[in-house]
Write a structure and sequence with these properties.
This protein is mainly α and about 150 residues long. About 70% of the residues lie in helices and about 10% in strands. It is elongated and about 80 Å long. The model has no long low-confidence stretch (mean pLDDT about 85).
Length: about 150
């Protein structure tokens, strides 16, 4: 390597590597910010709203996502990739029970709330009401400041 007519290859490699690392750090920061906004929904509201949807009647994971999409006029449609792990966790905690619609083929699991799930829904509603209300106010303020 070395120099080529006043051009130091090693220095250029260092400069390009530093530039690459800075751009990568910016991209990771943007990705992290996007994920944190999404986590407000998936980690906070999804468990609560899934319990609410199940309080309306037994259904499967795809229908839960679909019903959330309907109720939010398509503004929030959780992925089934987020719904099914949540349902599995809620089933293990005893808040819901899943039964196969066909015990032999096991094509679709239908979930319903247990007594513990009803209590959990009511507790979460009470516990998160203030947080949801505050978050809504913060979003309104930020929206007004940014967009008038």
């Amino acid at each position: 390597m070395g120099s080529f007519k006043g051009f130091d290859v090693k220095e250029e490699e260092k400069r390009l590597y530093k530039e690459y690392k800075e751009k990568l750090a910016k991209l990771k920061k943007i990705e992290k910010e996007e994920q944190s906004v999404g986590q407000v929904f998936t980690k906070g509201l999804l468990p609560l709203y899934a319990l609410y949807i199940l309080s309306l009647g037994a259904t499967n994971g795809n229908d839960i996502a679909h019903k959330i999409g309907e109720k939010t006029h398509g503004l929030w449609i959780p992925s089934t990739g987020g719904i099914y792990p949540l349902l599995k966790k809620m089933e293990k905690s005893g808040h819901i029970i899943g039964t196969w619609n066909d015990e032999i083929r096991k094509t679709q699991k239908v979930y319903s709330l247990t007594e513990g799930g009803i209590i959990e829904l009511e507790n979460k509603k009470i516990l998160l009401k203030g947080n949801i209300s505050e978050a809504l106010e913060v979003f309104k303020i930020i929206y007004k400041d940014l967009y008038g």
